[in-house]
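Posting this for the archive.
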Amino acid sequence: MKIGIVGLPNVGKSTLFNSITKAGAECANYPFCTIEPNVGVVSVPDERIDKLAEIYQPQKVTHAIVEFVDIAGLVKGASKGEGLGNKFLSHIRETDAIVQVVRCFENSNIVHVDGNVEPIRDIETINFELIFADLETIEKRLDKAKKMLKADKKYQFEIDTLEKVKKALEEGKVARSLEYSEDELEVLKDTFLLTMKKVLYVANIDETEIENPEANEHFKKVKEYADKEVAQVLPLCVKIEEELSALEAEEKQEMLEALGLQESGLDQLIKASYQLLGYISFLTAGEPEVRAWTIINGTKAPQAAGKIHSDIERGFIKAEVVSFEDLMNSNGSMNEAKEAGRVRSEGKEYVMKDGDIVLFKFNV
């Protein structure tokens, strides 16, 4: 699972990446200081795993993970190769979803590539470059489909689908803003359109506004824009997150309390990025290891078992399941949960739920 962090130069994206991964990507007050994409793998914060680790005292604790990629800043004309456009587009094509950092703070000491702070213009600068790149992809695919139509009429549906997307792109709309049938999605699956990728906008606000982001006019504009595009938006102050990331756990908690925050913006971002692609976690717990396993929401028990080992999926018999909440209501005791009838025996058609604690029974 790979999330690309994008944005115009000097909006705070590399600072955000550093704060998330503490990987030390170079930060400087000029464009393109991040030329090759920096990659960092981070754990998804999960209080359930922490609680289970307290109960079982395992030899190993494994959280779910998200891979973040810090991608070079983009400027107008990227789709035509301007700046680092070609590299930007190839790197973003390799990601599963996009976190777009948008500058929503004023600071005369930090240069804005377009001279002033205007978040919607910044968002559209990136979106339009992705749209132009997608138009090129769609037009090539259309040409091919039209040639194939002469030999096989089945290509008409593909042409209709591609024309539908092309019309939206030409109107300046991103491909993900349209509704599609399953058959249409099947046609588009191998086009790898950039504007089909799910997006989370991070509104980088001033530290004085962290308790009340709605006071920031720039943030309100981004939220309005994201709602129309059916995208998510998260306000955070990258400067504060950078400071928090450098602190030890106790000091970090003290600073969060002083700021009136329940959790850091970074923790919120990592969780939101995980959920952006429709992922959930099922859990396994015991003395050897407490672990979160990543699956797509809607996965059935045998396929979830296959995440642990293909043999378990192949020889699946049943799954003994208890929800995290039910285990906690049984004082963290599996035996007590069983006695209370809270542990269920589920078969091959069971659809896994987030926070299920599972023991798979199998035979090969």
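The two ends are 30 Å apart (CA to CA). Confidence is low (pLDDT under 50) at residues 28-35.
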